[in-house]
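Q: what sequence does this backbone want?
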């Protein structure tokens, strides 16, 4: 029950309205433990490590050590749950540096648990302690009992305040004393297994990487080669049928949409929807339980590890998309699931009006990363996923929010400084989504060395070129050649640019050439959600079409976009299904569509058009892997060599002459770049000079064919055509050979990729 002081504070805020009844002494799922019975003994234990760790304690007794940082709390209870859901509460009386801890003999892996944290209820100062609410351990390594999918709304009991209070403007100030334990997920004690002796990390260099963004559930849900009971799970992604596609395609890393334990938002449940993408984290150490085929009382941990091992064995790295900028507790009207009830003021950024949250994420709250214990939570989580779960890197959602010091984005912020010096984290792949929704949050090109970045300027320039919207080609030139204007500082390299045309957020590649307007009505938000800045072109009709010419043009545009991406300097990122022309029906915000809208349609592989796109993607990736000139580790200089006047990078007009400064400022629908394989900086592992073939790429975005004079000597004596996107059949290279200086016809809206050869290569001239 609330103390007199608490009651007085609440009554002041709600003008004396009646509060819900007091919390029973102990009650779970309608069951009550006999309060006179004696619970397990609690020994002092240790304040480190945080979380629940099974170990051998004093006198060889096996048990679990529990430790929870709860700054400002007055008391902490450990709550243990048996198989019937009956709760036993044990006070943690030891307090060391704001960490409450205790060792409980006999508690073994599989034990479900949570915490109740006592303290003041004073929302006006940011204090929101409420022991009626069972709280998930922030360090829980497995989570069980998440709300079932048949909930039509979050139960009112999971809110620390009275959610349905008549006066909504003060509802967050009224404490709800009903027990939340039956309705919230519990942590699970997990047995540590650090045996990675049989695991071999691929350790693919950044310059050689090709990233494939996928959703564990969506990629495997309807795959015909995966047993039905494994579809939608970590085990499904580990299945040979799933891995075979990745290996055959030629990607080097999968970037998994969030797999941290996450929660569904109330507004989605009320519309009969669910969070699909997973950007609503609540457990930073726990693999999302719904993706487990083997169980949710710890089995999900082992299943995730086996998935990582299987991918590693196939030479594929595992990168996690992580959401440390906010949690599923949302703003002041959100549920109380974990951090809010442990220490609201310590974990979250609050406004000067401490009832309100600083929101740089658009999701209601922002983690207070400058606080040492919050920074520790994040870095402990990151190290755990690397050292104990085997992952190879991270893509940080809204990374600019993590780089904020007090208010402004600061590239010397505590978060970035800690990452830079950490002996584990500085060695893995680090990808920033370099923006957030706050003032000054757009930081593309600003992150320090060690970091790569999603380069949305690349996305926009390539989309604009192929839809005919570029006023000139200056920006496109930078993007195709590695974005040196953004990244050639502080020792950064071309692979600092993660090049992408599409991502999970936005149109698929097929929808990019089929829709000009978003079609998000299925989300139930009146089509107001999702961006309006799609930079797309529907090729003459909105949505699916029976017009053969429109469909042929769309297939060609898909080939153009993919070819442009895979011959550009930088690290390419593909989205699962784009290599087969997957559609979302025009949705550019399918975050809540856990259905056929988002699941990969594997039948596309058997259809002629999608199969041709898949064959082209496979050929282009094989070409990229074979030619270091397409995977440069240093920026182009653009300087002419004294001996023959050749440059490592040169740009040509359709007349076969090098572009002048005037050409860069003029509108152009045809751009050609020459990549010299004789001028690749650096040496191989044995110290030898790296040399390669040279290539000429001609990008032509106009709707009519154009004549193009191939540069002659000294640039090339002959050229072999290896890619022509105007062709429907992409299983093999065209193989046509042309002389240097020869004029060729470039088909409308197409890419020609030619490999530089010599006169003796002209036997197949066509």
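A:
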């Amino acid at each position: 029950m609330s103390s007199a002081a608490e009651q007085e504070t609440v009554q002041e805020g709600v003008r004396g309205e009646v509060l819900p009844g007091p919390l029973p002494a102990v009650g779970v799922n309608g069951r009550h433990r006999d309060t006179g019975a004696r619970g397990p003994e609690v020994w002092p234990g240790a304040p480190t490590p945080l979380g629940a760790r099974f170990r051998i304690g004093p006198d060889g007794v096996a048990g679990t050590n529990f430790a929870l940082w709860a700054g400002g709390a007055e008391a902490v209870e450990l709550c243990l749950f048996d198989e019937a859901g009956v709760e036993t509460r044990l006070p943690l009386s030891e307090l060391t540096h704001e960490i409450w801890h205790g060792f409980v003999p006999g508690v073994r892996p599989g034990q479900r648990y949570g915490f109740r944290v006592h303290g003041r209820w004073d929302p006006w100062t940011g204090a929101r302690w409420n022991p009626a609410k069972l709280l998930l351990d922030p360090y829980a390594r497995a989570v069980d009992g998440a709300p079932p999918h048949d909930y039509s709304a979050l139960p009112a009991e999971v809110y620390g305040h009275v959610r349905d209070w008549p006066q909504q403007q003060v509802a967050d100030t009224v404490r709800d004393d009903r027990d939340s334990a039956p309705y919230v997920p519990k942590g699970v004690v997990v047995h540590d297994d650090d045996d990675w002796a049989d695991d071999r990390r691929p350790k693919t260099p950044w310059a050689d990487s090709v990233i494939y963004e996928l959703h564990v559930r969506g990629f495997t849900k309807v795959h015909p080669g995966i047993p039905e009971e494994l579809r939608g799970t970590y085990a499904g992604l580990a299945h040979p049928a799933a891995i075979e596609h990745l290996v055959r395609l030629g990607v080097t890393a999968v970037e998994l949409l969030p797999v941290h334990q996450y929660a569904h938002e109330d507004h989605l449940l009320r519309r009969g929807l669910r969070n699909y993408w997973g950007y609503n984290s609540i457990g930073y150490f726990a693999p999302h339980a719904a993706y487990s085929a083997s169980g949710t009382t710890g089995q999900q941990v082992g299943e995730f590890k086996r998935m990582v091992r299987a991918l590693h064995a196939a030479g594929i790295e595992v990168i996690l998309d992580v959401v440390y900028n906010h949690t599923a507790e949302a703003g002041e009207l959100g549920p109380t699931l974990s951090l809010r009830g442990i220490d609201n003021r310590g974990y979250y950024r609050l406004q000067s009006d401490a009832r309100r949250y600083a929101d740089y994420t658009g999701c209601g709250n922002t983690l207070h990363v400058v606080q040492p214990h919050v920074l520790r939570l994040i870095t402990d989580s990151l190290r755990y996923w690397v050292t104990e779960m085997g992952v190879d890197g991270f893509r940080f959602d809204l990374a600019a929010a993590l780089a904020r010091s007090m208010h402004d984005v600061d590239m010397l912020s505590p978060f970035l400084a800690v990452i830079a010096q950490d002996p584990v984290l500085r060695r893995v792949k680090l990808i920033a989504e370099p923006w957030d929704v706050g003032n000054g949050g757009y930081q593309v090109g600003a992150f320090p060395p060690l970091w790569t970045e999603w380069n949305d300027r690349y996305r926009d320039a390539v989309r604009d070129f192929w839809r005919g919207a570029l006023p000139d080609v200056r920006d496109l030139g930078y993007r195709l050649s590695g974005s040196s204007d953004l990244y050639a500082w502080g020792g950064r390299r071309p692979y600092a640019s993660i090049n992408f045309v599409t991502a999970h957020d936005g149109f698929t590649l097929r929808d990019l050439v089929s829709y000009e307007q978003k079609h998000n009505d299925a989300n139930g938000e009146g089509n107001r959600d999702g961006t309006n800045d799609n930079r797309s072109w529907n090729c003459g009709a909105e949505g699916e079409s029976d017009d053969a010419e429109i469909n042929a043009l769309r297939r060609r545009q898909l080939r153009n976009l993919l070819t442009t991406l895979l011959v550009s300097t930088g690290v390419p990122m593909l989205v699962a299904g784009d290599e087969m022309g997957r559609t979302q029906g025009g949705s550019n915000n399918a975050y809540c569509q856990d259905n056929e809208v988002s699941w990969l349609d594997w039948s596309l592989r058997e259809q002629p058009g999608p199969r041709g796109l898949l064959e082209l993607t496979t050929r282009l990736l094989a070409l990229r892997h074979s030619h270091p000139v397409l995977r440069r580790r240093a920026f182009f200089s653009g300087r002419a060599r004294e001996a023959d006047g050749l440059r490592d990078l040169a740009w040509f007009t359709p007349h076969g002459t090098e572009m002048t400064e005037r050409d860069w400022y003029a509108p152009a629908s045809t751009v050609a770049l020459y990549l010299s394989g004789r001028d690749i900086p650096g040496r191989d592992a044995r110290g030898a000079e790296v040399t390669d073939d040279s290539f000429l790429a001609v990008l032509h975005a106009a709707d009519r064919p154009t004549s193009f004079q191939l540069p002659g000597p000294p640039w090339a004596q002959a050229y072999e055509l290896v890619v022509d996107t105007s062709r429907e059949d992409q299983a093999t290279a065209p193989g046509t050979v042309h002389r240097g200086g020869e004029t060729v016809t470039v088909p409308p809206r197409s890419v020609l990729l030619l490999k530089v050869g010599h006169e003796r290569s002209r036997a197949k001239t066509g």
